[in-house]
Design goal:
This is NmrA/HSCARG family protein. By secondary structure, this protein is of the alpha/beta class. It has a domain of 172 residues: NAD(P)-binding Rossmann-like Domain (Rossmann fold, 3-Layer(aba) Sandwich), CATH 3.40.50.720. The strands form 3 sheets. A 7-stranded parallel β-sheet has the order 3-2-1-4-5-6-10, sandwiched between helices. A 3-stranded mixed β-sheet has the order 7-9-11. The two termini are 31 Å apart. The mean pLDDT is 95. The structure holds NADP nicotinamide-adenine-dinucleotide phosphate. NADP nicotinamide-adenine-dinucleotide phosphate binds next to α1 and β7.
Length: 303
């Protein structure tokens, strides 16, 4: 480990941790990334950008404690059960372990990346309710903390099986129903700004989203970006009848629990313009979009 990283980022080889670590690094800060395998391609890419690696495992509290040495601010995120890497109980245990370790080490500020469904009552979906439990635990600890609740990632729409390669894109919202979404780049820069200004954001819970997106808008934006028509439809009743996970999630979208409640104009006043889907498709999401358009057929896979 190098001598003086200020920030410790968990999940740095994953979607969120990676963009947060990079945004902090781009701001000229020393960053330590908590990684399981320092030889993985993603870990080596972080190291090549000047990010120090701390090797550990969230199932090993001693390795978390070791990584905290000298740290001022932490970005905490855990895998959840749809990934197959953890159970819901293990996600909760890992989220609590990071926070407890931060308190024991006297870390000044913790940012916990939760989820948009947290804090809205019991949802019945383990990987959402887990986040409310971690939030409650953190609020009870003697540490300055900021909780960020990201909406669904725009990147998630590029996962296999959503149909961009077939000309018919299927997703959660109804054609005229809106669901909030955010680009990972925005999530990275906002969480980094929060870590860089703990005094301004400590004690806050922030719902993060970049845009309200309807099924009809997806049809227009995807067709424009692809240069050929892409129709939008909600997951079919047949698919939902055979897939408990998607059925429960779609029902929570209908109830408004995962449709998103972020105040986007207020976020833009605080953090600057958020990426809209059109901009994302022609910018940071361009490669993912082209890959999804040209992907071989596959079953739906979400995390
Ligand atoms: N997808 C969405 O739209 C969305 C929206 C809001 C919230 N969320 C939440 O976001 C969270 C996942 O974040 P993400 O998508 O950024 O993660 P991700 O891309 O799935 O990556 C998971 C990260 O956790 C690390 N990890 C897993 N098990 C570990 C362990 N035992 N010890 C140390 N590190 C471990 C992985 O490291 P390795 O490289 O070693 O595997 C990787 O860096 C979930 O809780 C999910 O519910 C997702």
């Amino acid at each position: 480990m190098s001598s003086s990283p200020e920030f410790l980022v968990f999940g740095a080889t994953g979607q969120q941790g990676c963009v947060v670590a990079r945004a902090l690094r781009e701001a000229g800060r020393e960053v330590r990334a908590f990684v399981r395998d320092p030889q993985s391609e993603r870990a080596r890419a972080l190291a090549a950008e000047g990010i120090t690696l701390a090797v550990g495992d969230l199932f090993d509290r001693a390795s978390i404690d070791r990584a905290m040495t000298g740290i001022r601010g932490i970005f905490s995120v855990q895998a959840s059960s749809p990934s197959g890497l953890v159970t819901d109980e293990q996600e909760v245990a890992q989220g609590k372990a990071i926070a407890d370790s931060a308190v024991a080490a006297g870390v000044a500020h913790l940012v916990y990346s939760s989820g948009g469904a947290a804090g809205k009552g019991h949802t019945g979906m383990g990987h959402f309710d887990s986040k409310s439990r971690i939030e409650d635990h953190i609020r009870g600890l003697p540490i300055a903390a900021t909780i960020t609740r990201p909406a669904s990632f725009m990147e998630m729409m590029m996962l296999p099986g959503m149909g961009l390669n077939t000309g018919v894109f299927t997703f959660f919202m109804q054609r005229r129903q809106s669901m909030q979404m955010i680009a990972l780049d925005d999530l990275g820069r906002i969480n980094a700004q929060i870590l860089l200004q703990p005094g301004r954001y400590a004690g806050q819970t922030l719902e993060l989203s970049g845009q309200d997106i309807t099924g009809e808008y997806l049809e227009e934006a995807f067709s424009r970006a692809a240069g050929h028509p892409i129709r939008y439809q909600r997951f079919s009743d047949e698919l939902l009848a055979g897939n408990d996970f998607l059925r429960q999630l779609s029902a929570l979208v209908d109830k408004g629990i995962v449709a998103g409640v972020a105040d986007i104009p207020a976020l833009e006043r605080e953090f600057g313009p958020m990426l809209k889907l059109d901009q994302w498709l022609s910018g940071p999401g361009k490669v993912l979009f082209e890959e999804a358009l040209n992907a071989p057929q596959a079953g739906i896979s979400l995390r």
